[in-house]
């Protein structure tokens, strides 16, 4: 498998379309390369990588040589069709390749309808986001979705159309332009593992077209289904048990047929062993990139390739598919980033940043970004248990990240918190206890979340908005002891997250401590809607009012975001290094840099005084702007501090 040797005589792959057509050539005296010249440079640089990966993936496929020529033409055409403002944006981004790692970057993730109704509505809210410091918009799925149940848009019916309720293609381009004008990047989901059962490809397959049947994984016997199931896990064991769905319309010659559906029965897994599928999704990526999308969240990245006798998660070929997309995008839309969505064991997540084939060592040749679900989960666990040790151990492990790639750091997202992703690090008993804690099912728990589901004997995952998981009641007011404690916990989660290495992404509503969606009206059987409420713009209007929970939290968070932007050591390049010798309830790490930052967080409800060995007594709390004594540092209940060596401070923007 994966041999680089090719059975046919290798023919060089030529670019068979004309380069340097009208308007694309530069005058001989110009020092800037023309579009055609820079395309040629990028082909020279990245095509060999793409070609090698594609040969590995598709060796043995008939007519692969012709297909490779077509792939090269597809990316070249997309490169030449890239709108000039986007090509210029590429050049600017390439001149500052660490842009997404800088400490002034902040993401915001939202469902378009829940946040602002439509794409035009989102555009109208850019001022609200800019005021918060947002530089990166992650709009959850907005492409045309299957009618009825569609997993919040993760069942795409048409990758070339916008969901009509949300707007039209022009609205997406307008939003991208407005975002770019406001200094923001745009991230969209590409649901690449599966299509909706309603997608035209699936419809054609059901109508008996063999070409489209081959886009999916169709099994024809109960034995082959059972054989695969024996080694597969389940993502939604309660709401969508099993990985296959009977689909009589796909049956041939009076037989039976099952289609592979890792997620819901209406989400049909695509067959990436078919190069036509690779090409279709590449063309989707190129199309959206040329609409102005800056970052692609590759949904369900680990599942792309299937092989019998395996868990079909993170197989080598899955990584090659993603690496090939990266190399091809580097030709056509060179500043576009890939974000891997792999909510799995932390070591496996790191593998999505890439690997050097020769040495086997981590390399930055796959996803530029990946979710740090490990630290997110470990932080929630740390607050529930008052034990910092697992988070410290995890920080040590995560330091292998290639420096040119970055984490997405976050507190909450639209999915459940999957405790089992830490199963390799944390005893099952602890994961079960924490799951019960966040469901409010253990004595003394303040949490207002709900248990979702687990694979096998695993700990059930947790649903709920961050504000509810820390125990905030919707009507809670500052000054009440339980409200103040809840807000301190929420601020701690964000203060620690904003100090970790990565691009932090706020989940919609967290900035105003928005609590769970009202139970009435939630779709039955899909508990994740608990944390997908409508944006509460009345609550947002209270964001400057310190007499409200929303106002207290928004003011504090906004201040953290502004201070962070002035602290270069909080960029996403160098990893956070855990501090040794702290009491068990204190989480502490250092961010190295010209001006290092220490982050210390008291995970408990009791005030403590910590003492750190230091050669200088000149330290400051960077947020409170007060001098502090590191040898006798008081930390209140759930208090967090960012500590810097005293010295000239940078201006914090108002
Ligand atoms: C993703 O999540 C999306 O974020 C979910 O909202 C979708 O339902 C799902 O894909 C299907 O499109 O199980 O709980 O390792 O864990 O792909 C989250 C990755 C999920 C999976 C992830 C999936």
Topology of this structure?
Elements (H helix, E strand, L loop, with lengths): L34 H24 L5 H18 L2 H12 L11 E4 L1 H5 L2 H6 L1 H7 L3 E4 L3 E3 L10 E7 L6 H13 L3 E6 L3 E3 L3 H7 L3 H4 L4 E2 L2 H8 L14 E3 L11 E3 L6 E3 L5 H15 L5 E4 L17 H17 L4 E4 L5 H6 L17 E3 L1 H13 L3 H10 L7 E5 L17 H11 L11 E2 L10 E2 L2 H4 L11 H19 L3 E5 L29 H4 L8 H18 L10 E2 L7 E6 L5 E6 L5 E3 L8 E3 L4 E3 L4 E3 L4 E6 L9
Parallel strand pairs: 1-2, 1-17, 2-5, 5-11, 11-12, 12-13, 13-14, 14-17
Antiparallel strand pairs: 3-4, 6-10, 7-9, 8-9, 15-16, 18-19, 19-20, 20-25, 21-24, 22-23, 22-25
Helix pairs in contact: 1-2, 1-12, 2-11, 2-12, 11-12, 14-15, 18-20
Bound molecules: 3-O-alpha-D-glucopyranosyl-D-fructose.
Protein name: Maltopentaose-forming alpha-amylase
GO biological process, one term: carbohydrate metabolic process
InterPro entries: GH, GH13_cat_dom, O16G_dom_2
Short description:
This protein is of the alpha/beta class and 654 residues long.
Structure description:
By secondary structure, the chain is of the alpha/beta class. The chain has a domain at 578-645: Golgi alpha-mannosidase II (Immunoglobulin-like), CATH 2.60.40. It is built from 20 helices and 25 strands. Strands 1-2-5-11-12-13-14-17 form an 8-stranded parallel beta barrel, surrounded by 4 helices. Strand 19 (586-591) and strand 20 form a beta hairpin. Helix 1 packs antiparallel against helix 2 (64-81) and helix 11 packs parallel to helix 12. The longest helix has 24 residues, at 35-58. The chain is globular and about 75 Å long. The relative contact order is 0.09. The structure holds 3-O-alpha-D-glucopyranosyl-D-fructose (OTU). It comes from Nitrospirillum amazonense. InterPro entries: GH (IPR017853), GH13_cat_dom (IPR006047), O16G_dom_2 (IPR045857). It holds the Pfam family Alpha-amylase. This is Maltopentaose-forming alpha-amylase. Residues 109-564 form the Glycosyl hydrolase family 13 catalytic domain.
